[in-house]
Design brief:
about 250 residues, alpha+beta, Ubiquitin-like (UB roll), Aldehyde Oxidoreductase, domain 3, five-stranded mixed β-sheet, five-stranded antiparallel β-sheet, disordered C terminus
Length: about 250
């Protein structure tokens, strides 16, 4: 059988391509696919222990069985977490305020759309491109995403925040493409009856987004460019989840 492989971030650069087709025996698992792919592309091996894999736009465990024509995405750790100073596919009623876009984010417009008379608090997180990373002057950033899956994950985050924290409404917008210093890369707006709910939900959304939503950033400096390091994927979605035996197959 054949599966359609999608590559992102540093993996895309290593292979100098975004997609390829891999042939596998019938009923191969995700773990067996990864071993096969690393044999075909040894340069990917150093990333194998930190990957997550999505099958048809949903995170998949090593034991997941693949089928003819499946879309298999190799996902390096996403754009960065604190170290860098739900049902899958659920769409809820806030979906018009959950989006990826390439044009600048209009923060005041989003706040106005979210805020209502019953709200006692509106908390805003505005992630901004800074002018340096670890002392190196930043020229600009490029953001890319596995767009269909990222949007689904963002919609799920908004829904889960409402269920977990009892907030009334959430807006979540992330930029893609080239961003200059000072531009907003991500904006989160949370409206709730009480400030504690809004603060807690906003912090949870950005921290979870930075670990699980497939968006990557490439940082450009005067002396070159690098894909930003991300935190390890949460254990429940990592391809090398402890206890499943997959780690013994790492290159």
């Amino acid at each position: 059988m054949h599966v359609h492989v999608l590559l992102f971030g540093a993996l895309k650069d290593l292979r100098a391509r975004e997609t390829e087709i891999v042939e596998l025996p019938e009923k191969s698992t995700v773990a067996e696919f990864l071993r096969r792919f690393v044999a075909i592309a040894p340069q990917v091996g150093k990333y194998a222990g930190s990957l997550a894999i999505a099958v048809n736009r949903e995170y998949a465990l090593p034991t997941h069985v693949l089928h003819e024509g499946d879309e298999v995405a190799l996902l390096p750790p996403v754009s960065g977490g604190s170290g860098d100073d739900v049902p899958p596919g659920h769409v809820d009623s806030t979906s018009e305020l959950i989006r990826l876009q390439r044009e600048p984010i209009d923060a005041s417009s989003l706040v106005a759309q979210v805020k209502e008379g019953e709200d006692g608090a509106v908390v805003v997180f505005d992630g901004i491109v800074r002018n340096n990373t670890r002392g190196r002057a930043t020229l600009f950033l490029d953001y890319e995403s596995y767009e269909a899956m990222a949007l689904s994950q963002m919609q799920t985050l908004a829904h889960d925040a409402q269920q977990r924290f009892g907030v009334r409404r959430t807006a979540l917008v992330h930029r893609l493409g080239r961003l200059q210093v000072g531009e907003s890369s991500v904006l989160i707006v949370v409206a709730a009856a009480h400030r504690a709910q809004a603060f807690d939900a906003c912090r949870w959304i950005i921290d979870t987004l930075k670990k699980t939503v497939p968006i990557w950033k490439k940082e450009w400096f005067e002396d070159g460019a690098v894909w930003a390091d991300g935190e390890p994927f949460p254990e429940e979605i990592s391809i090398h989840k402890s206890g499943d035996g997959a780690s013994e197959n790492e290159p």
